[in-house]
Amino acid sequence: MGNRVGTEGDVAFAGQSVVVDPYVNAASEADDQEQLIIADIDLTQTAAARKQRPFLGLRRPEWYV
């Protein structure tokens, strides 16, 4: 998940972007400063993680307007 940092008008963006692995564990996290974060993720875990947490079946693409 990427988030902006800094301000724009009256809006302050917190930053704190994060890269998560297929089990939603933080692999790398940013703070409130502009930066590049990089993480190695084992994508072979994706299929097993999706079986354990079948959230994609709950999507409602017809609502994505």
Explain what you see.
- The relative contact order is 0.18.
- This protein has one helix at 46-52, and strands at residues 5-8, 11-14, 18-20, 26-29.
- The two termini are 21 Å apart.
- The protein is α+β, with helices and mostly antiparallel strands and 65 residues long.
- A two-stranded antiparallel sheet has the order 1-2. Strands 3-4 form a two-stranded antiparallel ribbon.
- Helices cover 11% and strands 23% of the residues.
pLDDT averaged over residues: 89
Q: Number of helical segments?
A: 1
Helix content: 10-25%
What profile does the largest beta sheet have?
Answer: 2 strands, antiparallel
SS content category: alpha+beta
The percent range for strand residues is 15-25%
Count of extended strands: 4
What are the segments in which pLDDT stays under 50 over at least 5 consecutive residues? none
Q: How far is the first residue's CA from the last residue's CA?
A: 21 Å
Spatial sequence of strands, sheet with the most strands: 1-2
Helix and strand pattern: EEEEH
Determine Rg (CA atoms, Å). 16 Å
Shape, principal axes of CA atoms? flat
What distinguishing features does this structure have?
65 residues, alpha+beta, two-stranded antiparallel ribbon, 1 helix, 4 strands, 11% helix
